[in-house]
Specification:
Elements: H1 3-22, H2 26-29, H3 35-46, H4 54-61, H5 65-77, E1 81-86, E2 89-97, H6 99-119, H7 125-142
Antiparallel strand pairs: 1-2
């Protein structure tokens, strides 16, 4: 079998399945948040003890400025975040989660943890170590 011809397709299929599973979370769907919205909101909440700026999110998710800007604007409109100017540079706006975001995050985080356990069910620690090693190598090949 020629793995170099199917690996990309298999990764795309697996990614789609994981996204669909994660989006089964009623707390996300009821609030009309996409998978990307929930991932970015999770990042903001997980880093709420430090200053988070749009460029940090762009770098972390390796996503274009326009895409992140659109998602941030949407999260702000839905009252999950607000932006606050930085004293040292008025052009910079740090992104801060609201109480609404913190409450939602708790449910999302619990659900993701359960689904992650399901993902690795029946996979040995050695297999996971090999999988993660190969996954990182594939990612590095794309850099």
């Amino acid at each position: 079998m020629e793995y170099d011809k199917i690996i990309g397709r298999e990764i795309v299929i697996l990614s789609g399945k994981i996204k669909r599973k994660l989006m089964e979370n009623k707390n996300i769907n009821d609030r009309q948040l996409s998978h990307s919205h929930s991932r970015i909101l999770g990042y903001i909440v997980e880093h709420d003890k430090e200053d988070v700026f749009q460029r940090d999110i762009e770098k972390h998710f390796m996503t274009r400025r326009a895409t992140i800007s659109k998602i941030i604007k949407s999260l702000e409109e839905k009252k999950y975040i607000f932006r606050e100017s930085v004293v040292s540079d008025g052009r910079l706006k740090k992104i801060i989660p609201t109480e609404k975001a913190l409450n939602l995050y708790r449910y999302i985080h619990e659900d993701i943890a359960k689904k992650d356990l399901n993902l690795i069910s029946g996979i040995s620690e050695a297999e996971m170590k090999t999988f993660m090693s190969v996954l990182h190598k594939i990612s590095k090949n794309l850099d």
